[in-house]
Design a protein that fits this description.
It is found in: Cytoplasm. This protein is of the alpha+beta class. The protein has two domains: about 15-45 and about 55-125 and about 290-315, Alpha-Beta Plaits (2-Layer Sandwich), CATH 3.30.70; about 130-285, Sandwich (Immunoglobulin-like). The chain is about 15% helix and about 30% strand.
Length: about 325
């Protein structure tokens, strides 16, 4: 593997946010269209938000272990089969794959993994145009509950997943008024979940302290009655997994520092969200744009990005 120079400007480099921006491969890449269709806004008690297809292309950069031109050819061929891919460039020397198009980053990772290689997202979009949110549960089970769940037989088709991290949302601003959202959740009970950006980024008490749905209007007095922070709903299947890819009319800088919540709670009672097993939450943090992050060795641990990724995956990271 070829390693570039260490860049200490991006302290989240290959650990934390950048590392877990690669997906666990829970879905096969050819289901991207299904994911787009399954993410539909809720109309219950609200003005319905139109589901918008992602049409504005953007660039993503992935670290991929490649040893020869044959590796590059396999990866390029697999990615060109994805709907929305317009350009793929594989650099064996630098161990990087650059992709342009409208396909979800998670779908690209899965397509690369289907060739027998791993992939780590290194950057998306232009500088200061990308963000990520690591979704965690703040629900605490009793010791007896935990013992029962751990004892469940493998393959029992249960949604139960005791990992703290339950999902990941990537955001890339692709135009002055459009941001694409690539959402993956797993290990939560089946059902219909509301996806919202919250007014605050205070997670002192988990989702309960994140405040109401973000309600900022682009044009006060002429905006929709639906809060801008309501992104829609997603259906979680019997195995506790779901993903979606869509665009929404906000800019990345507007939501940095806010909380992102995925929950089955309808909030019709006006009370703060509860930290139940149906709710996951994370802070929306800025992430690297394409070519912003060339770190391949962690300055803190001295580990390579692949060693760091292995450690993070063992902790339940996506």
């Amino acid at each position: 593997m070829h390693f570039g120079r260490i860049n200490t400007r991006y302290i989240i480099g290959i650990s934390g946010l950048a590392l877990i921006a690669s997906t666990g491969g829970a879905y096969s890449w050819h289901r991207q269209k299904e994911r787009q269709q399954r993410f539909q806004p809720s109309s219950a008690g609200k003005k319905s938000l139109a589901s918008m297809a992602v049409t504005t292309p953007f660039q993503t950069l992935f670290a991929v272990p490649m040893t020869c031109d044959g590796c590059a050819k396999d990866i390029t061929g697999a990615l060109h089969k994805l709907q929305g891919i317009t350009k793929v460039e594989a650099n064996v020397k630098e161990q990087l794959v650059s992709v342009e198009g409208t396909a979800a980053p998670s779908a690209i990772v899965e397509a690369i993994q289907a060739t027998g290689r791993d992939a780590i997202l290194r950057g998306s979009g232009a500088s200061n145009s990308a963000a990520v949110s690591i979704l965690e549960t703040y629900h605490n089970r009793s010791n007896e509950e935990a013992k029962t769940l751990v004892a469940s037989p493998p393959g029992s088709n249960s949604w139960v997943n005791e990992r703290l991290v339950r999902g990941l949302a990537r955001m890339v601003q692709v135009s002055p008024e459009e941001t694409v959202v690539d959402l993956t959740v797993r290990g939560v009970p089946p059902g219909t979940y509301r996806v919202t950006i919250r007014e605050y980024g205070n997670l002192k008490d988990g989702a309960s302290s994140a405040g109401p749905v973000w309600s900022a209007q682009k044009d006060p007095g002429h905006g929709s009655s639906t809060p801008r922070g309501f992104l829609g709903t997603v259906e979680v299947g019997p195995r506790g997994r779901a993903s979606a890819f869509l665009n929404r009319p906000f800019m990345v800088w507007e939501v940095i520092g806010h909380a992102l919540v995925v929950s089955r709670q309808d909030e019709s009672d006006g009370k703060p969200l509860r930290n139940d097993e149906d709710t996951v939450v994370g802070i929306i943090a800025r992430s690297a744009g394409v070519w912003d992050n060339d770190k391949t060795v962690c300055s803190c641990t001295g580990k390579t990005l692949w060693e760091e990724r292995k450690d993070e995956v063992s902790k339940g990271m996506l």
